[in-house]
Each structure stands twice: as C-alpha cells, then as structure tokens.
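Example record for the data management plan.
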Amino acid sequence: PRGGFCIDRRLPDNTRGITAITFAPDGRMFLALDSNLARDVDPLILYDAYHPSRSVAIYDWVNNSSRYEEIFTESSRITGLDYSGGALYLSRAGEVGRIPDGGGYEKLADGFAVQSQLFHANNGIVISNGWVYISAGGVVDGYVEGPIVGIGEDGAQQIVSGGNPYAARIVRAPLSDLLAQRSITVFSTAARGVRNPYGITDDPAGRIWFTDNGATNVPDSISAGDEVNMLDPAAIGGGEGATPFYGFPLTLSGESPDWYVKPVVDLVNSAAPTGITWAYDTVYFGVYGRYPGLYRVGRTASGAAVAERILHGWPILAVATAPDGAIWIGMGAGGLYRITPGCAN
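Corresponding structural encoding:
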C-alpha cells in the first residue's frame, strides 16, 4: 500500500516464544507462550511436545502494558488459538480444549497424532460458521522415507497419517456436537493430501485458508508441498473419499493429476509456512524456513497469485488479525509486533 507498512513493537523485554495469537471481539488479546525458540534453546523442551512448560496469557495491548497475565500454565505445546462465543479455544499437543471466560481449562477432545521430533501434531484451529476446523499434521516426512509411489490416495493417506484418522488432514466438527459429546469422534475429514498443515483461518466469504509445511530433502525440481491452500466448505463431500485431495505425498513423484486441488501459492521448498490470517483483503502468512518473513498473497499483472514478502523476520510463528484490522505477529524469540498499512494508525 501507499506509504508501506508501519511496525509497532510491544512487550520489548519478552523472551518467551509466541506460538499463537487470537483476539476476543472486545479487543482482549490472547497469547500462547513457549520457551525461547530462537536462542538458548533447551532441546529437552523443544523436542518434547508434552513438556508442561507452555502457557496462555492475556495481554493488555491497548494500554501498552509491558506485562501479560497468565491464565493457564503448565500446558503442553500450544500451536492454535481462536476465540468464539465467550471462550478461548486451544489446539495443543494431541488435544483440543477451551477456557471459558472466568473459568478454567476444559478438555474437549484428545487422540490427535503427535510426532514431537518433526513438530507435527494438531496445529491451528479456527471456528467458522458453526464448525471447528483443525489443521492436523502427519507422522512421517513422505520423502526422507522414500517417495510414496504405486498406491492410491487412500493408501498414501494411511502411510502419512500412521493410520490415525485425525492426522495428515484438515478435520472439522460441529461446535455444538463437540461441546455436547467432548470426543474426537465428532471430527471428520474435511480435506486430505497434506503433510503438516499449520496455520488455519477463514475469510469473510467463509472460505478456509491454511498453510502446509512440505517434505524435506526434496530436489528443487519437484515441489515439496510447501504451500498456501484454500478450502471451500462447499467442496467437502459426504465421506472420506469425497473430500478434496491436495496431492501430498503422491505429487512428490513429480505427477500432479488435474483433479488434485492446486495450491493458491506454491512456495519454495523448505519455506515452512506457519501462521496465517485474513487482513486487508488478502491472506498474510509467516515463513519460518527458506527466505523467512511475513508474506501476503498478491497478484501479478496477468492475475496469477504470488507470495509477496513485506518484511524479513525470523522465526515468525503466530499471525493474527485484531478487531481493529491490524495484523499482529509473534516470534519464536518473544517479539510481538503490530502491523498497519500506510503508517496512518
């Protein structure tokens, strides 16, 4: 935009990694906190998704406070937050839960696959049009183990998910059913063919957007599956086999049948995209790996979608939009930034 972007830093002395951000409609800001993920890293915490060293905090950004108030401590790794109907919803290692306003943590469902060493688990969470969507990672790389060839989509899905019906997928559940039954069985597949989908959000039209972290050690001549994807809820079929298939890991063979759902933006291998949010009429997302920074989806002169980097930074993990429209990013080293266009605000 004209005038570029204005970046305002908050919590300058924070050293805890920020892995997820969300807002209540009244402006309250919720942060998922981890140990420092960029310097002085403790590998015993880093590679243990269940280590009870994480927490959730409320931050009073309006008054520019230099401190936050923790409301849930001793948690496993938290990678997704969303606020809906008077409660904060969490996606954390192996389970989904919520914290009602003024209440304590309540587990709603467990049984999601967790692969701590690969940082794969149930990651982002978004509540949209009465549904809870979860980006659920797989348990294998899909290329390091050898490209998967000679089988169909169902067989490939079984391999990358380790047989877990709630892994290597986008899954969803009616929010009312989840609150009533409090079981993972209310979730069903919304999309398949992903490796480690991380950030997930919706847009004003009700479409679901998510990032996917691709396979490692893949030649640059073949897309590893690092990408930004869009899921139209109207395309979700009535059963597992009728759901959209985004191609992973079968496309690692170099093939991409026309009926596979193509990414909105195909990123460079090892980009490792992270958080994603809708703001200023497009999606903004973080990249952790190759060419790190904050990106947005733009258009070329011919109308093709393209990823545009608007700032360089590492490691950006959390990306969210505040009720006033501003973008916020959280860093693995503890940095917290508010971003607005044109420096007008």
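Summary line stored alongside the record: The chain is about 5% helix and 40% strand.
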